[in-house]
Amino acid sequence: MNKLNIILKKYEKDGFIILKNFITKKEIDVFEKKLFEIYSNNLKAYVNKKNVHKVIISSEKNKLYDQLYLCYNKYIISRPYKNIQKKFLLFSKKLFKKNYKYLKAGMAIGIRNSSRTAYDWHQEKSYYNIKNTIHFQFPIISPATKNNGTMSVLASSHNLGEIKKTKNIKKSKKSINTLKPNNINQIKKNYKEKFIKMKLGDVCMFNENIIHKTNKNYSKNVRLVPIIRFKPSNKWEVF
Ligand SMILES: O=C(O)CCC(=O)C(=O)O
Ligand SMILES: [Fe+2]
User: Fold this and answer.
1) What's the rounded Cα separation, in Å, for the pair 235 and 97?
2) Cβ–ligand 1 contact at 100 (below 6 Å)
3) Average pLDDT for residues 75-86, to the nearest whole number?
4) Shortest CA distance to 101 belongs to which of 80, 123, 86?
5) Residue 119: CB within 6 Å of ligand 1?
């Protein structure tokens, strides 16, 4: 079996896969520089690799939610996101022998003592009407570890398909919202939780139906994990 087939089989079995050393140090550097630039310009602070954690943590503490959200929204449409998409698109096309196109981008932001940006258990499918979307996430600045709250998945839970009965949990007006399956306690008994530990350069690709969540960040550093989502593309589509 060739390498791609091994990846495909594992992804189909587990509902996720960690692609080791998928992106280069240079590609990560570009992501980091752009983040410092955007956060510097919008938080009235000089943000660099050393102080980025302090700046974001204190902005969160001081409830600068709108400013943080502005940074986030500028960042996820920036050039590094556009460029890395090409790499993921090419890979997806080779792996699944199907065309995909951009659906959405985002960034997981994990801050100690804050659950405002943390997701409880959910499937991505619950957020979209479209079927067969695929999802990529990768850490920048620091690796994603159990200690800094990396996401965990219930391995193979994508086999459950779309779970229609969910509850929308939103802790406050400016918090993220989780579409949590009603029967999550039962599901947790049947599938094993796996923590997605990633070094810089690693990428996690996951299925729209895998059940996953954010974990608590116990570290002094913020966990920053850009996310890119694709939907199938119909090549006959005109627009
Ligand atoms: O990494 C996390 O905190 C969870 C992110 C998430 O839910 C996603 O990438 O869809
Ligand atoms: Fe998610």
Assistant:
1) 13
2) no
3) 98
4) 86
5) yes
User: In this model, does residue 42 exceed pLDDT 60?
Assistant: yes
Q: Evaluate: CB of 212 within 6 angstroms of ligand 1.
A: yes
Q: Report the candidate in 75, 103, 80 with the shortest Cα–Cα distance to residue 31.
A: 80
Strand partners, 167: 180
Query: What counts of helices (H) and strands (E) characterise the chain?
Result: 6, 10
Kindly list the domain boundaries of the chain, sorted by start residue. 3-232
Q: Give residue-wise pLDDT tens across range 121-134.
A: 999 999 999 999 99
Find the 152 Cα to ligand 2 centroid distance in Å. 10
**Among 115, 116, 137, residue to substitute to test ligand 1 (most atoms within 8 Å of Cβ):** 137
Q: Which fold has domain 3-232?
A: Jelly Rolls (2.60.120)
Question: What whole-number percentage of the chain has pLDDT above 90?
Answer: 96
Question: Is residue 239 pLDDT above 80, yes or no?
Answer: no
Q: What would the mean pLDDT of 143-170 be, rounded to a whole number?
A: 98
Q: What is the mean pLDDT of residues 67-96?
A: 98
Query: Which residue owns the Cα nearest ligand 1 atom 10?
Result: 124
Q: Is the pTM for the entire model greater than 0.85?
A: yes
